[in-house]
Amino acid sequence: MHIALLEDEPDLAADVRAILEREGHVVVTFSSGNHIIRGLAKEPFDLLVLDWNVPGPSGLDVLIHVRKELQSAVPVMFLTSNSAEDQIVVALNAGADDYCGKPLRASEFTARLRALERRSHIARVGRTAETIEFDGYQFNEVERCVDMGAEQVLLTEKEFELAKLLFQNLDRPISRSQIMAHVWGREEDVLSRTLDVHVSWLRRKLKLGAGLGGYRLLVVRGYGYRLVKGEEAAV
Predict the structure, then answer these.
(1) Considering its fold, how many domains does the chain have in total?
(2) What are the pLDDT digits (tens) for 160-175?
(3) Where does the record place the Response regulatory domain (predicted)?
């Protein structure tokens, strides 16, 4: 993979780069928010690894730029302090796909990146696009987008996996813990608010709210969520 690393501490940047290069990746290191923003305008990357506290625009600012200004769904791994729960929640809610705490543990970091790579289908370069269809919703597994008739909606990796899970379990209640384990690969309290934010985004993007379309994403109080369609969706 071609990876962009945002880290202003030289020693940590060297350590992270070494881990990534041992895995066979090509790494470009950036030491400031402005530096990486300029770099992203010049060349595409398969994955971003962002530290939060850097000179200039923060890692969070870079993430927001990528999601809103560049309209990119490139997978993003955040490096955060283990004690900074608020940072983790904000980063995930802004569109980060995963996070890894500092001080960095090489084995955990590598495992999370491999899992993110598998989920993102990054390794499947050049394959023919595969689609899954659900009565008016066509999920493109490679582009990570959903076609709704004439409208194409680009989703982040987590939004895509969450939406696909819901459609594959149509009319079935899915627990919050099951969703978090499937989409984020872990069950943690810090993810609870993030899940609710992602549900809110999907309701808007895929028209899953009351009166918006043929499907409706319902809350199952004290348990989780349930996607329904047809007459029940209109209730």
Answers:
(1) 2
(2) 989 988 998 888 898 8
(3) 2-117
Query: Does the reported pTM lie above 0.85?
Result: no
Place of tokens 């680009």: 154
SS3 66: helix
**Could you tell me which residues come within 8 angstroms of residue 27 by beta carbon, excluding any fewer than 6 positions away?**
3, 4, 5, 17, 20, 21
**How far is the CA of 196 from the CAs of 67, 159, 186, 200, in angstroms?**
19, 11, 16, 6
Q: What percent of the chain has pLDDT over 90?
A: 30
Q: What is the residue range of 79's domain? A: 2-120
Verify that 105 and 137 share a domain, yes or no: no
Q: Is the pLDDT of residue 123 over 60?
A: no
| Residue 125 domain-assigned (yes or no) | no
Angstrom distance (rounded) from CA 120 to CA 122: 5
